[in-house]
Design brief:
The complex is a heterodimer of chains A (271) and B (549).
Chain A: H1 2-22, H2 33-46, H3 48-51, H4 73-82, H5 99-113, H6 125-135, E1 141-142, E2 145-146, H7 156-159, H8 162-171, E3 181-187, E4 193-200, E5 204-209, E6 214-218, E7 222-227, H9 243-254
Antiparallel strand pairs in A: 1-2, 3-4, 3-7, 4-5, 5-6
Helix pairs in contact in A: 2-5, 4-5, 6-9, 8-9
Chain B: H1 2-18, H2 23-31, H3 40-44, E1 53-54, E2 66-67, E3 81-87, E4 99-101, E5 104-108, E6 113-118, E7 124-129, E8 148-150, E9 153-157, E10 162-167, E11 173-178, E12 193-195, E13 198-202, E14 213-218, E15 224-229, E16 259-261, E17 266-270, E18 292-297, E19 303-308, E20 324-330, E21 333-341, E22 346-351, E23 357-362, E24 369-372, E25 378-380, E26 391-393, E27 407-409, E28 414-421, E29 424-428, E30 442-446, E31 455-461, E32 468-474, E33 483-485, E34 489-493, E35 498-503, E36 509-514, E37 525-529, E38 532-539, E39 542-547
Parallel strand pairs in B: 2-33
Antiparallel strand pairs in B: 1-4, 3-39, 4-5, 5-6, 6-7, 8-9, 9-10, 10-11, 12-13, 13-14, 14-15, 16-17, 17-18, 18-19, 20-21, 21-22, 22-23, 24-25, 26-29, 27-28, 28-31, 29-30, 31-32, 33-34, 34-35, 35-36, 37-38, 38-39
The chains are: A alpha+beta (271), B mainly beta (549).
Chain lengths: 271, 549
Amino acid sequence: MRSLALLTFATALACASLVAQDLPETNPFHGDSAAVLAGMGQFRQRCADCHGMDARGVRAPDLTQVWSSGRTDRGLFNTVRNGVSNTEMPAFTAPRTSDRDVWQILAYLRTLASPAPTDLPTGDVGNGALVFENNCSGCHRVNAKGGLLGPELSRIGSGRSREVLLSRIRTGIDEPRPGFQPVTITPESGPPIRGVKKNEDLFSVQIMDTRERIQGYRKDQVRSVVDIRRSMMPIFGPERLSDSDLTDLVRYLGTLRGFDPSVEQRPPVVF
Amino acid sequence: MFFQEVTTVRLETLAAVFGVMLASDVASAQENTPLAPVSAQEILAGLPSDGSRWLTFGGDYANQRHSPLTQITPQNVGQLVPRWTFQTGTLGNFETTSLLRDNVLYVTGPLNVAWAIDARTGRQIWRYRRELPTNLTACCGLVNRGFGIWGDKLFMATLDAHLIALDARTGSVVWDAELEEHSIGYASTIAPIVVNGKVITGVAGGEYGIRGFIDAYDAETGQRVWRFYTIPAPGEPGSATWAGDSWKTGGASVWVTGAYDPESNLLFYGIGNPGPDYFGEMREGDNLYSNSIVALDADTGRLRWHYQFTPHDVHDWDATEVPILADLPIDGQTRGVVMFANRNGFYYTLDRETGRLIVAKPFVETTWAKEIGPDGRPVLLPGNTPSEEGTVTCPDLTGGTNFWPPAFDPSTRTFFVNAREVCMTYYSWEPEYTPGDRFTGGAGQRVVDPDNPAYGALRALDPTTGERKWEFRYLSPSTAGLLTTASGLIFSGDPDGNLLALDSRSGQLLWHYQMGATLHGTSPITYMVDGKQHVLVPAGTTLTAWSLP
């Protein structure tokens, strides 16, 4: 009896590993323009009503930043296939939804997160890293190195297209993303405190100030809280950053696909 | 004190020894008499001045959510302290209105878990959990909006489209009636109300091509007494408002509790959107009784009148908001009315007997209709039909307001509503109907305009004119329900997790507390326990009871 149970267990394991082997780790349709088009149709018919036409979320979560937040192709495939239990995200099961259908939807979504490049990448990665260190790392962190006031960029290569990166560096950012809205708090006494807003409600505001201190303030205990519309991200015109340095920088950013432990860490900050 | 205790013990000992019954024993024997079952009279009486009951979704059948209690006042509300907090221990959030009787709370939660809770301490007395199938087709949250109660039974609608009765003392199932087959799109999240021994409920599924209905079940047996289909079949009055076979998959769900007028024995229910939501070409016509309020005879389910807020809706503006009944002076005459703040952005006052329009006025920005004409129909503005390229319309699909309960203070004749100022780009295309699949024919995306950011506000309206008396603005739209009290308070919640108490006459903020989760779609209730007024607040996965120290 025991051996039978063991055998069953072994068979189940074999089946499970077979299934896992069958399912590719990365999307076999990634960048395939016909698949992207088919995926767009599927997405609109079956997903957009909850996730929004732009996949930025209406009744259900934003799907455009899932890769940059660390989700993998295979993990997302399983979420679509199995649903999310105890929520209204249904399981899209076979045979009505084929593996191909799911991959095509993901291929389309991936283009919203990071459109496939239209031309071959150019530029010098090594110089790009140097340009980054000299111009950007005061505010942006890559692989645990750099400042904290701007968004972490260790995955930026899978989250933003080359065109978007180019335009943001050259022309700046009109609308800072949540968590990075510049704000000035004027206390009852002492100089104004500048920083970026992490959270806010009617009665309080939570910020990271320019010294990278995180702190909350009660609105009734300060003189004023003033939002600054434009992002703190400076504009790097050609006079500050040459075309060739910009090309190298964007090439470097494109290689950032997640935290890379092989990169040397700087020693931990001691408070 | 010590002496008295000793004396009592001695007397009790004596009584036990000699078989003498003491006065205190008589009193406790009376307390232990089983409580009389919940009666029609008790529910009809609404919220009593002694604060001992909250027996139906809206506090009373009129859904006013206005408590006569006055212990907590604008002057002392700042002293509120928490008495206890109850954690659900489940995924998903409360959207429920709790019921209270005899110091026990009856509470439904997400995923069809429910509890009886000691109102003195927050301790669980029993817990019910329904095993749910994996192929649920609930559109927008696996939630529940509350119990109905009658006799010694509680009634709960389930996510797999059943109506069940539980024994209020144990939480065990007494009967279980299937409303419809859940796998083809039917679900139920509504709080039932019980009228003269009939449990009134409805079905969700307007995004899945269902054919909606309102049902009445015998509270004792679970036998269906009547069914009102919210979409007439061919040959029935109103059926010509649906082209071809579109009536079969036309939606018109019922997922928010209606009102009941004992005088006329009429039920008033708001009906959901027609399907497919955004692609109207598949269902030419007005699509009755989608986006309407219907007045039904409570004994038979027969339609007395209807009023359609949004004929041939293409923006998913379900009329599933909570109707409130009241008597108002209109043109020098007292008239029975239904008050209704609609998802389409207009506030309405209707005659309760006839359904005729008395007042219609936008309470948020509306770009789809110029006004509601004297014939009761909206005067449409061009360029608001969803399209493949996208069409911008205000309000968005969530609407000017939605299912979160409004409140009405009869002493000042003020209607309170949490309103949203949000616009949307609506897209549409021709969908295919597959049973059990979503059938919406489009999608939306919210308009983000830094110069004109979306926001929300608590608004106080004069229901005789639709004019605004005051507003209290939030940073973004709130989805909290409301509660008013005779002492001049209104309780609300903001979109960032703050519980708020305001002066209901002026809109001035008096007190706030960060709950850590919003009061999404749910209102606080208030009642008395041991001489203290309590305010019970569902937020996220917690219930917290507040009182003065």
